[in-house]
Specification:
71% of the residues lie in helices and 1% in strands. The protein is an all-alpha fold.
Length: 664
């Protein structure tokens, strides 16, 4: 008797190979269908809860940008990996790790080696490495550890809820309080009139919306959706689209338009004339929508008119050219992990006062830091994963009754990933931990749907030992990473306090005591917690030098100068490529009256940052300490003010020189 196929059973793909190959495909389809319909274990729900909590915490805390946020984020990531390993070790049957997860391992190994042997700032390089590793860990866990329907839907709902809350917070910023940010932070004036939600910049909120907006639209438009589902998901899609409009992110809008236009060309199965017609219709709709937005939104019209007036961007081409020059200087291995912000100073043009921590182009940033080898290992791995999904997508079973596993929803998620990837040309989303984790989560959801893994096997003692070894390695790594982020958080808090004091004029010495004392305490704890952090040692030297303005007496000045010099030498022992480290030692030596040696330090700083106003100001201040060098001091000060006419410290020094007052 012929077997009757159930309506919800995956159908075999068209015959295009040997019987053995067709049978293998059918078995994989049945395994994939059974996996998504199976009941989730306690371990799987624990992993889901830890990842969801991490996504919520990191996203709401400025996207995880600040180091003190990463203390908890790294702990949750370690707990997630430990739960993943323990779940696999305690399970009777586990599937082998997905092939796609292994594709990211070579880059992580290479990046770690780059931090150790190439990077001039290894304490920053390890932070950068952790961000890459965290994205890979989330991708791996979602791909291999969260495979059943309920937990996968819970993760998707978490991401949608975060995007929805981001739009709500963006509306509050746009219509109520333009300066508001979480945890008492204040938004930059340049972002007023644009929504950024819980992120520091609007482009980051736009990136999160890009990941989810096409999928939400696909869920609402899927064939078997009920009317209530169409209305509900359609309303969510309109809210997310409204939020994307409020960000006024030109790069995000263009990336989404390109992704939607390319979708029928890359993923379509019909003939090319029909694909081209669909792409033309989508492009026409996008153009009409853009015209409506620009016509009704003065802020959007201003942004695009500025784009046309400037012939593109003003600041981004500067940082892009510098990154390309750094890559050309070290094309194979790069200049070192997290080195761009430091080495940019050699290529800073006159009058360019922006401090570009990253390149505003993740592809070029990776090329500059890790060289051609790192870029090929990183982005080549993702291209291999995308190619694997494309090859296996024809074998994936249509499960339209499951809204998240439906083919149209998977394509929507893939379009969101494509739009996100296109926006990386003008932004640094992979340096924002929350966005990197969201990208890894969505990518794993797509890969698990389009590229089913291998069937579960009985857990052997060897595999159980391997999983437990992973748990032990994660726990050991936590002892290294947690203090690193703890120290960087203390340093960042102290430096912010010091910078606020430095920006304040006419402060009485007694008013400096309390904040400087707290900053010195934080920095002392930071260098004790993580001695490898060179910037913490330099900031400690800075705080000690400022304390000299509080203490009286020549003997006390000499003592503080020696303490500051020792801290600065500790910083220079970690890296000699940072101009600020030389400045801190030069200031410390000036406190001791060691004028000649201090001059050598300032000369080193000027060689490393010839067009930055800070070394020129300190050099002018140093020269002003000797009346015979007054003309040289005035010349150095004039060049400093040429680079930065609004430099308050330089203007105050010029006034002191005009009335003949010596530097303190």
């Amino acid at each position: 008797m012929a077997r009757v196929q159930r309506a919800d059973e995956p159908r075999a793909p068209p015959s295009d190979g040997s019987p053995d190959r067709r049978a293998s495909r059918i078995r994989r389809l049945n395994i994939a269908a059974a996996t998504t319909s199976a009941r989730a274990s306690v371990g799987e729900w624990v992993q889901t809860a830890l990842l969801a909590l991490n996504l919520v915490w990191t996203t709401l805390c400025l996207g995880g940008y600040r180091a003190d946020t990463m203390v908890i984020t790294s702990g949750l990531t370690g707990a997630l990996l430990a739960a993943h390993g323990l779940t696999r070790a305690c399970s009777g049957q586990t599937a082998p790790p997905h092939v796609a997860g292994w594709a990211l391992v070579p880059f992580l190994l290479y990046a770690a080696a780059n931090v150790i042997w190439v990077s001039p700032v290894p304490w920053l390089g390890w932070i950068d490495w952790f961000w890459w590793a965290q994205m890979a860990a989330v991708f791996w866990v979602v791909l291999d550890g969260i495979r059943t329907r309920g937990p996968r839907q819970a993760l998707f709902f978490t991401l949608v809820a975060l995007a929805f809350s981001g739009v709500a917070l963006g509306c509050y910023q746009r219509f109520v309080s333009p300066h508001w940010l979480p945890f008492g932070e204040t938004r930059s004036p340049q972002y007023q009139g644009r929504a950024s939600g819980s992120f520091g910049i609007p482009n980051s909120l736009a990136a999160l919306l890009l990941l989810l907006l096409p999928a939400v639209g696909a869920i609402a438009a899927r064939r078997h959706a009920r009317a209530t589902e169409r209305v509900g998901w359609g309303w969510v899609g309109l809210v997310l689209a409204f939020g994307l409009v409020l960000t006024i992110s030109r790069g995000a809008w263009i990336a989404l338009a390109l992704a939607l236009t390319l979708w029928p060309l890359l993923a379509g199965r019909s003939r090319w004339p029909r694909r081209l017609r669909i792409a033309a219709i989508i492009l026409t709709g996008v153009a009409a929508t853009a015209a409506v937005v620009i016509t009704t939104s003065p802020k959007a019209a201003q942004r695009f008119s500025q784009l046309a007036r400037d012939g593109g961007e003003r600041s981004r081409p500067v940082v892009w050219r510098a990154a390309w020059q750094l890559f050309r200087a070290a094309p194979v291995l790069g200049t070192g992990a997290a080195s761009y912000n430091l080495l940019f100073e050699k290529h800073r043009p006159e009058g360019f006062l922006v401090a570009p921590q990253w390149v505003h182009n993740d592809y070029l940033n990776t090329l500059s830091d890790y060289g051609a080898v790192g870029a090929m290992l990183c982005f080549g791995a993702w291209m291999l994963i995308a190619g694997g999904c494309a090859r296996h997508s024809r074998e994936s079973a249509p499960r339209e009754h499951d809204w998240l596993d439906g083919r149209l929803t998977s394509m929507g998620l893939a379009v969101g990933l494509l739009a996100f990837s296109l926006q990386l040309v003008v932004d640094f989303h992979l340096k924002i931990p929350a966005l990197a984790m969201a990208f890894g989560t969505v990518a794993a959801l797509v890969v698990s749907r389009l590229w089913p893994g291998r069937p579960p096997r009985p857990t052997t003692a060897l595999r159980r030992s391997r999983d437990l070894a992973v748990v032990a390695a994660v726990c050991a790594m936590a002892f290294v990473l947690m203090p690193m982020f703890r120290a960087e958080g203390l340093r960042d808090r102290a430096r912010r306090s010091i910078d606020r004091l430095a920006a304040t004029t006419a402060v009485e010495p007694d008013a400096l005591r309390r904040p400087l004392s707290a900053a010195r305490a934080d920095l002392s704890l930071a260098v004790a917690t993580h001695p490898a952090n060179g910037q913490a040692w330099a900031d400690l030297a800075y705080a000690i030098s400022l304390w000299a303005h509080v203490e009286n007496g020549r003997d006390r000045q000499l003592q503080l100068g020696r303490e500051a010099e020792r801290a600065a030498e500790q910083a220079l022992s970690r890296s000699t490529a940072c101009p600020e480290f030389w400045i801190r030692r030069g200031v410390a030596r000036d406190l001791q009256g060691d004028w000649l040696q201090a001059g050598n330090d300032f000369a080193e700083a000027l060689a490393l940052a010839p067009n930055h106003p800070l070394p020129w100001f300190h050099h002018a201040d140093h020269l002003s300490r000797r009346s015979s060098e007054r003309r040289l001091a005035e010349a150095a000060l004039a060049f400093c003010l040429r680079l930065d006419p609004e430099n308050a410290a330089a203007l105050a020094l010029r006034q002191r020189l005009a009335i003949g007052t010596r530097a303190p």
